[in-house]
Amino acid sequence: MITGNYPNLRLRRSRKNDWSRRLIQENSLSTSDFILPIFLIDGKNKKQSIKTMPDVYRYTVDKLGIILDKAIKNKIPMVALFPHTRSNIKNDIGSEALNEDNLVCKAIQYIKKKYKNEIGIMCDVALDPYTSHGHDGLLKSGYVLNDETIQILVKQSLVQAQMGCDVLAPSDMMDGRIGKIRKSLDKEGYEMVQILSYAVKYASSFYGPFRDAVGSKGLLKGNKKNYQMDFRNSNEALREVSLDIKEGADMVMVKPGMPYLDIIKLVKDNFKIPVFAYQVSGEYSLLSNGINKKLIDKSSIIESLISFKRAGANAIVSYYADRINQLIE
Ligand code: PBG
Protein backbone atom coordinates (compact mmCIF):
# COMPACT_ATOMS: atom_id res chain seq x y z
CA MET A 1 0.00 0.00 0.00
CA ILE A 2 2.75 2.45 0.93
CA THR A 3 5.02 3.22 -1.99
CA GLY A 4 8.38 4.91 -1.65
CA ASN A 5 10.96 4.85 1.04
CA TYR A 6 13.11 7.14 3.15
CA PRO A 7 14.65 9.51 2.17
CA ASN A 8 12.19 10.01 -0.72
CA LEU A 9 9.35 9.57 1.66
CA ARG A 10 9.33 11.68 4.81
CA LEU A 11 6.02 11.47 6.67
CA ARG A 12 7.13 14.34 8.91
CA ARG A 13 6.91 16.68 5.88
CA SER A 14 3.16 16.88 6.16
CA ARG A 15 3.33 17.18 9.95
CA LYS A 16 5.55 20.27 9.88
CA ASN A 17 2.95 23.01 9.70
CA ASP A 18 -0.36 23.44 11.40
CA TRP A 19 -2.22 24.08 8.12
CA SER A 20 -0.79 20.92 6.66
CA ARG A 21 -1.60 18.86 9.72
CA ARG A 22 -5.17 20.09 9.43
CA LEU A 23 -5.33 19.08 5.77
CA ILE A 24 -4.33 15.48 6.39
CA GLN A 25 -6.48 15.12 9.50
CA GLU A 26 -8.54 11.92 9.34
CA ASN A 27 -11.00 12.49 12.17
CA SER A 28 -12.56 15.45 13.92
CA LEU A 29 -15.20 16.26 16.48
CA SER A 30 -18.16 18.58 16.25
CA THR A 31 -20.90 19.31 18.76
CA SER A 32 -23.23 17.26 16.52
CA ASP A 33 -21.35 14.14 17.61
CA PHE A 34 -22.58 14.37 21.19
CA ILE A 35 -25.38 13.19 23.40
CA LEU A 36 -25.62 15.00 26.73
CA PRO A 37 -26.73 12.96 29.76
CA ILE A 38 -28.81 14.92 32.27
CA PHE A 39 -29.56 13.81 35.82
CA LEU A 40 -32.94 14.77 37.21
CA ILE A 41 -33.99 15.31 40.79
CA ASP A 42 -37.31 15.94 42.53
CA GLY A 43 -38.24 19.30 43.93
CA LYS A 44 -37.89 22.89 42.79
CA ASN A 45 -35.15 25.34 42.02
CA LYS A 46 -32.24 22.97 42.55
CA LYS A 47 -28.99 22.42 40.74
CA GLN A 48 -27.23 19.90 42.91
CA SER A 49 -23.63 18.80 42.61
CA ILE A 50 -22.66 15.12 42.57
CA LYS A 51 -19.76 14.16 44.79
CA THR A 52 -18.23 11.57 42.47
CA MET A 53 -18.64 13.58 39.23
CA PRO A 54 -16.92 16.98 39.16
CA ASP A 55 -18.93 19.67 37.27
CA VAL A 56 -21.93 17.40 36.72
CA TYR A 57 -25.21 18.27 38.41
CA ARG A 58 -28.69 16.99 39.11
CA TYR A 59 -31.42 19.39 37.98
CA THR A 60 -35.01 19.83 39.05
CA VAL A 61 -37.36 19.99 36.07
CA ASP A 62 -37.94 23.75 36.47
CA LYS A 63 -34.18 24.32 36.17
CA LEU A 64 -33.65 22.29 33.01
CA GLY A 65 -33.60 25.49 30.97
CA ILE A 66 -30.09 26.25 32.29
CA ILE A 67 -28.58 23.22 30.63
CA LEU A 68 -30.94 22.87 27.65
CA ASP A 69 -30.62 26.46 26.41
CA LYS A 70 -26.88 25.96 26.30
CA ALA A 71 -27.09 22.53 24.64
CA ILE A 72 -29.38 23.84 21.90
CA LYS A 73 -27.24 26.92 21.35
CA ASN A 74 -24.21 24.65 20.91
CA LYS A 75 -26.12 22.37 18.53
CA ILE A 76 -26.01 19.26 20.69
CA PRO A 77 -28.49 16.97 18.89
CA MET A 78 -29.84 15.02 21.85
CA VAL A 79 -30.05 14.75 25.61
CA ALA A 80 -30.36 11.54 27.64
CA LEU A 81 -32.47 11.73 30.79
CA PHE A 82 -31.63 9.86 33.99
CA PRO A 83 -33.70 10.20 37.16
CA HIS A 84 -32.45 10.22 40.73
CA THR A 85 -35.35 8.54 42.48
CA ARG A 86 -36.05 8.99 46.20
CA SER A 87 -35.53 5.68 47.98
CA ASN A 88 -38.98 5.75 49.56
CA ILE A 89 -40.63 5.42 46.14
CA LYS A 90 -38.48 2.50 45.06
CA ASN A 91 -39.78 -1.04 45.41
CA ASP A 92 -38.76 -4.54 44.36
CA ILE A 93 -40.65 -4.36 41.04
CA GLY A 94 -39.74 -0.77 40.17
CA SER A 95 -43.36 0.36 39.72
CA GLU A 96 -42.35 4.03 39.62
CA ALA A 97 -41.00 3.31 36.11
CA LEU A 98 -44.60 3.12 34.90
CA ASN A 99 -45.87 6.20 36.72
CA GLU A 100 -46.92 8.71 34.07
CA ASP A 101 -46.09 11.45 36.51
CA ASN A 102 -42.55 10.28 37.33
CA LEU A 103 -39.53 12.51 37.03
CA VAL A 104 -38.55 11.38 33.53
CA CYS A 105 -42.11 11.83 32.22
CA LYS A 106 -42.31 15.31 33.71
CA ALA A 107 -38.97 16.25 32.18
CA ILE A 108 -39.91 14.93 28.71
CA GLN A 109 -43.13 16.93 28.74
CA TYR A 110 -41.37 20.07 29.98
CA ILE A 111 -38.68 19.86 27.30
CA LYS A 112 -41.07 19.03 24.46
CA LYS A 113 -43.39 21.86 25.43
CA LYS A 114 -40.62 24.42 25.74
CA TYR A 115 -38.27 23.37 22.93
CA LYS A 116 -40.53 21.42 20.54
CA ASN A 117 -38.31 19.48 18.18
CA GLU A 118 -35.18 21.60 18.58
CA ILE A 119 -33.42 18.80 20.42
CA GLY A 120 -33.93 15.03 20.64
CA ILE A 121 -34.77 13.28 23.87
CA MET A 122 -33.46 9.85 24.69
CA CYS A 123 -34.56 7.82 27.71
CA ASP A 124 -33.14 4.69 29.24
CA VAL A 125 -35.45 1.72 29.33
CA ALA A 126 -34.46 -0.21 32.45
CA LEU A 127 -35.70 -0.52 35.99
CA ASP A 128 -32.56 0.18 38.01
CA PRO A 129 -33.38 3.77 38.98
CA TYR A 130 -36.65 2.48 40.44
CA THR A 131 -35.91 -0.86 42.11
CA SER A 132 -35.08 -1.17 45.79
CA HIS A 133 -32.38 -3.76 44.92
CA GLY A 134 -30.77 -1.63 42.19
CA HIS A 135 -31.11 -4.23 39.42
CA ASP A 136 -32.39 -3.47 35.93
CA GLY A 137 -35.21 -6.01 36.16
CA LEU A 138 -37.24 -8.24 38.44
CA LEU A 139 -35.14 -10.18 40.88
CA LYS A 140 -35.86 -13.75 41.98
CA SER A 141 -33.40 -15.63 44.18
CA GLY A 142 -30.54 -13.41 43.03
CA TYR A 143 -31.39 -13.87 39.32
CA VAL A 144 -32.85 -11.16 37.12
CA LEU A 145 -35.87 -12.63 35.33
CA ASN A 146 -35.87 -12.12 31.59
CA ASP A 147 -39.35 -12.50 30.11
CA GLU A 148 -41.17 -11.10 33.13
CA THR A 149 -38.88 -8.05 33.07
CA ILE A 150 -39.54 -7.48 29.36
CA GLN A 151 -43.26 -7.16 30.02
CA ILE A 152 -42.54 -4.20 32.29
CA LEU A 153 -39.96 -2.71 29.93
CA VAL A 154 -42.52 -2.76 27.12
CA LYS A 155 -44.89 -0.76 29.32
CA GLN A 156 -42.13 1.63 30.37
CA SER A 157 -41.29 2.19 26.70
CA LEU A 158 -44.89 2.97 25.83
CA VAL A 159 -45.22 5.43 28.71
CA GLN A 160 -42.06 7.26 27.63
CA ALA A 161 -43.10 7.27 23.95
CA GLN A 162 -46.51 8.60 24.89
CA MET A 163 -44.86 11.49 26.78
CA GLY A 164 -42.89 12.44 23.67
CA CYS A 165 -39.58 10.63 24.02
CA ASP A 166 -37.87 10.44 20.60
CA VAL A 167 -35.36 7.66 21.20
CA LEU A 168 -35.87 4.74 23.54
CA ALA A 169 -32.66 3.25 24.80
CA PRO A 170 -33.08 -0.16 26.43
CA SER A 171 -30.05 -0.50 28.67
CA ASP A 172 -31.11 -3.58 30.57
CA MET A 173 -29.56 -6.38 28.43
CA MET A 174 -32.58 -8.71 28.61
CA ASP A 175 -32.80 -11.16 25.69
CA GLY A 176 -35.46 -10.32 23.14
CA ARG A 177 -36.56 -6.97 24.50
CA ILE A 178 -35.86 -4.96 21.34
CA GLY A 179 -38.27 -7.06 19.27
CA LYS A 180 -41.02 -6.90 21.88
CA ILE A 181 -40.62 -3.16 22.39
CA ARG A 182 -40.57 -2.47 18.62
CA LYS A 183 -43.68 -4.53 18.11
CA SER A 184 -45.68 -2.82 20.81
CA LEU A 185 -44.53 0.66 19.75
CA ASP A 186 -45.67 -0.05 16.19
CA LYS A 187 -48.96 -1.47 17.37
CA GLU A 188 -49.70 1.62 19.43
CA GLY A 189 -48.88 4.07 16.65
CA TYR A 190 -45.33 4.98 17.72
CA GLU A 191 -43.65 3.54 14.64
CA MET A 192 -41.46 6.64 14.27
CA VAL A 193 -40.00 6.41 17.77
CA GLN A 194 -36.42 5.24 17.39
CA ILE A 195 -34.68 2.49 19.35
CA LEU A 196 -31.07 2.87 20.37
CA SER A 197 -30.18 -0.48 21.84
CA TYR A 198 -27.49 -0.73 24.44
CA ALA A 199 -26.68 -3.93 22.56
CA VAL A 200 -23.20 -4.37 23.99
CA LYS A 201 -23.18 -3.43 27.60
CA TYR A 202 -20.51 -4.92 29.77
CA ALA A 203 -20.73 -5.68 33.49
CA SER A 204 -18.25 -2.96 34.32
CA SER A 205 -16.65 -1.29 37.30
CA PHE A 206 -16.71 2.00 35.43
CA TYR A 207 -20.38 2.70 36.26
CA GLY A 208 -19.75 3.55 39.92
CA PRO A 209 -20.21 7.33 39.82
CA PHE A 210 -23.41 6.99 37.74
CA ARG A 211 -24.94 4.76 40.39
CA ASP A 212 -24.10 7.45 42.91
CA ALA A 213 -25.70 10.07 40.65
CA VAL A 214 -28.99 8.17 40.31
CA GLY A 215 -28.96 6.98 43.92
CA SER A 216 -28.72 3.24 43.32
CA LYS A 217 -25.19 2.78 44.58
CA GLY A 218 -25.69 1.60 48.13
CA LEU A 219 -28.74 -0.42 47.13
CA LEU A 220 -27.26 -2.76 44.53
CA LYS A 221 -27.38 -6.34 45.73
CA GLY A 222 -24.60 -8.40 44.18
CA ASN A 223 -23.53 -7.54 40.65
CA LYS A 224 -25.05 -7.42 37.16
CA LYS A 225 -23.08 -10.29 35.65
CA ASN A 226 -26.06 -12.53 34.93
CA TYR A 227 -27.36 -10.03 32.36
CA GLN A 228 -24.58 -7.61 31.37
CA MET A 229 -21.71 -8.99 29.28
CA ASP A 230 -18.43 -10.46 30.44
CA PHE A 231 -15.64 -8.03 29.53
CA ARG A 232 -13.52 -10.93 28.34
CA ASN A 233 -15.78 -11.48 25.32
CA SER A 234 -16.00 -9.92 21.88
CA ASN A 235 -17.58 -12.58 19.62
CA GLU A 236 -20.56 -12.48 21.91
CA ALA A 237 -20.84 -8.73 21.26
CA LEU A 238 -21.38 -9.43 17.56
CA ARG A 239 -24.09 -11.95 18.36
CA GLU A 240 -25.83 -9.41 20.60
CA VAL A 241 -25.71 -6.76 17.88
CA SER A 242 -26.94 -9.06 15.12
CA LEU A 243 -29.93 -10.10 17.24
CA ASP A 244 -30.84 -6.51 18.07
CA ILE A 245 -30.62 -5.45 14.43
CA LYS A 246 -32.95 -8.29 13.44
CA GLU A 247 -35.32 -7.26 16.21
CA GLY A 248 -35.49 -3.69 14.93
CA ALA A 249 -32.81 -1.56 16.60
CA ASP A 250 -32.09 1.64 14.64
CA MET A 251 -28.74 2.19 16.33
CA VAL A 252 -26.59 0.30 18.79
CA MET A 253 -24.50 1.39 21.73
CA VAL A 254 -21.23 0.03 23.01
CA LYS A 255 -20.62 0.70 26.68
CA PRO A 256 -18.30 1.58 28.43
CA GLY A 257 -16.21 3.45 25.90
CA MET A 258 -12.46 3.67 26.11
CA PRO A 259 -11.71 0.13 27.31
CA TYR A 260 -13.89 -1.18 24.45
CA LEU A 261 -12.63 0.62 21.34
CA ASP A 262 -11.95 -2.74 19.69
CA ILE A 263 -15.62 -3.62 20.11
CA ILE A 264 -16.77 -0.35 18.53
CA LYS A 265 -14.58 -1.07 15.53
CA LEU A 266 -15.67 -4.68 15.30
CA VAL A 267 -19.35 -3.76 15.36
CA LYS A 268 -18.90 -0.96 12.83
CA ASP A 269 -16.85 -3.09 10.43
CA ASN A 270 -19.25 -6.01 10.61
CA PHE A 271 -22.61 -4.29 10.45
CA LYS A 272 -22.16 -0.81 8.91
CA ILE A 273 -24.88 0.61 11.10
CA PRO A 274 -24.88 3.68 13.37
CA VAL A 275 -22.77 2.81 16.40
CA PHE A 276 -22.75 5.01 19.46
CA ALA A 277 -20.19 4.93 22.24
CA TYR A 278 -20.82 5.77 25.87
CA GLN A 279 -17.97 7.44 27.71
CA VAL A 280 -19.29 6.34 31.07
CA SER A 281 -19.21 7.99 34.46
CA GLY A 282 -16.07 6.21 35.69
CA GLU A 283 -14.13 7.28 32.60
CA TYR A 284 -15.41 10.82 33.08
CA SER A 285 -14.47 10.98 36.76
CA LEU A 286 -11.01 9.51 36.23
CA LEU A 287 -10.20 12.01 33.50
CA SER A 288 -11.71 14.96 35.35
CA ASN A 289 -9.95 14.16 38.62
CA GLY A 290 -6.66 13.70 36.78
CA ILE A 291 -7.09 17.08 35.14
CA ASN A 292 -8.18 18.80 38.35
CA LYS A 293 -5.14 17.39 40.15
CA LYS A 294 -2.98 18.55 37.23
CA LEU A 295 -1.75 15.01 36.60
CA ILE A 296 -2.76 15.28 32.96
CA ASP A 297 -3.60 18.15 30.64
CA LYS A 298 -7.17 18.94 29.71
CA SER A 299 -6.45 18.13 26.06
CA SER A 300 -6.66 14.49 27.21
CA ILE A 301 -10.44 14.92 26.95
CA ILE A 302 -10.34 15.53 23.20
CA GLU A 303 -7.72 12.83 22.77
CA SER A 304 -9.96 10.27 24.42
CA LEU A 305 -13.08 11.41 22.56
CA ILE A 306 -11.35 11.29 19.17
CA SER A 307 -10.44 7.67 19.88
CA PHE A 308 -14.14 6.83 19.69
CA LYS A 309 -14.43 8.48 16.28
CA ARG A 310 -11.30 6.72 15.04
CA ALA A 311 -12.75 3.40 16.15
CA GLY A 312 -15.88 4.12 14.11
CA ALA A 313 -18.42 5.63 16.51
CA ASN A 314 -21.02 7.92 14.95
CA ALA A 315 -21.86 9.66 18.19
CA ILE A 316 -20.69 9.72 21.79
CA VAL A 317 -22.61 9.96 25.01
CA SER A 318 -20.40 12.09 27.22
CA TYR A 319 -20.69 14.11 30.41
CA TYR A 320 -18.40 16.64 28.72
CA ALA A 321 -21.04 17.34 26.05
CA ASP A 322 -22.25 20.53 27.78
CA ARG A 323 -18.73 22.02 27.59
CA ILE A 324 -17.47 20.38 24.44
CA ASN A 325 -17.75 23.49 22.28
CA GLN A 326 -15.05 25.14 24.42
CA LEU A 327 -12.77 22.16 24.05
CA ILE A 328 -13.00 21.68 20.29
CA GLU A 329 -10.67 24.10 18.59
C1 PBG B 1 -28.65 1.57 33.92
C2 PBG B 1 -27.55 2.37 33.36
C3 PBG B 1 -26.25 2.41 33.86
C4 PBG B 1 -25.59 3.38 33.11
C5 PBG B 1 -26.49 3.88 32.16
N1 PBG B 1 -27.71 3.22 32.32
C6 PBG B 1 -25.61 1.74 35.01
C7 PBG B 1 -25.66 0.30 35.18
O1 PBG B 1 -25.96 -0.47 34.27
O2 PBG B 1 -25.41 -0.11 36.32
C8 PBG B 1 -24.17 3.79 33.34
C9 PBG B 1 -23.75 5.08 32.80
C10 PBG B 1 -22.49 5.61 33.35
O3 PBG B 1 -21.77 4.97 34.14
O4 PBG B 1 -22.18 6.75 32.98
N2 PBG B 1 -29.27 0.62 33.18
In brief, what are we looking at here?
The chain has 329 residues and is of the alpha/beta class. The chain has a single domain, classed as Alpha-Beta Barrel (TIM Barrel), CATH 3.20.20.70. The chain has eleven helices and twelve strands.
Measured by DSSP, the beta-strand proportion falls in 15-25%
Roughly what is the average pLDDT, rounded to an integer?
97
Strand pairing plus helix content: what structural class?
alpha/beta
Which molecules other than protein and nucleic acid are bound?
ligand PBG
Name the poorly predicted regions: none
Task: Give a short account of the largest sheet.
Answer: 8 strands, parallel, barrel
What report would you give on this structure?
By secondary structure, this protein is an alpha/beta fold. The chain has one domain (29-327): TIM Barrel (Alpha-Beta Barrel). The chain is 35% helix and 18% strand. The chain has eleven helices and twelve strands. The chain has helices at residues 18-23, 64-73, 103-115, 147-163, 177-187, 208-213, 235-247, 261-271, 281-292, 299-311, 324-327, and strands spanning 34-40, 47-50, 53-59, 78-83, 120-125, 139-140, 143-144, 167-170, 194-201, 251-255, 275-278, 315-317. The strands form two sheets. The protein has an eight-stranded parallel β-barrel, surrounded by seven helices. The protein has a two-stranded antiparallel ribbon with strand order 6-7. Strand 2 (47-50) and strand 3 form a beta hairpin. The longest helix has 17 residues, at 147-163. It is globular, with a radius of gyration of 20 Å. 43% of the residues are buried. The mean pLDDT is 97. Ligand PBG is lined by residues 124, 126, 128, 136, 171, 207, 210-211, 224, 280-281.
